[in-house]
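Hi C.,

You asked whether I'd gotten around to modeling the 177-residue construct. I have! Everything is below, sequence then structure, no commentary in between.
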Amino acid sequence: MKHATKKSSDIDNQAPTPAATTLAKRVYLVEKNSDDITLARRAILQAGYAVHLEALQTADALIQEFSQPNQSLAQPVPDLILIDTNLPDASAYKLVHWIRSNTIIQHAPVVMISNSDKQDDIFNSYKHGASSVIQKPVAFTEYAHVLKDACSYWLNISVMPHNRHIKKANKLLTSSQ
């Protein structure tokens, strides 16, 4: 079933500078609410990160993005994937499980963004492979602060394998099968 998906790139659709393009981190945001996408863009922009943000409104859109074998091998691995826990087309938990089983993006950090403080929801996020769970505050200033802190940790402090090492390992895996 084909869904109409909205996809937007780069913070506030500003053309990145040549330096920002080479240094920009790749962040995917899977969020159904266009207002929350706008808030996230503003928060990340205000934090001053050089980020190429791909905003997708459905889980299927992310799956399609990384399911095409030739295209997904050419794409850089996301530096961070932010997922709203209340997605319309598939369970966010199933999406995280799919990410962890996808050899191209399985090592990308996945941060679940939730309105819930229920322990079952938090537990299920980690059970299915989330790297972190953050609660979405109601106020924009608090939400901006939470996103800034999450991005700071996952984009600046945490050490992840480089894209070239992941792709080299994936090529070896696919050629040996």
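If it helps when you're writing up: The two ends are 30 Å apart (CA to CA).

Thanks,
B.
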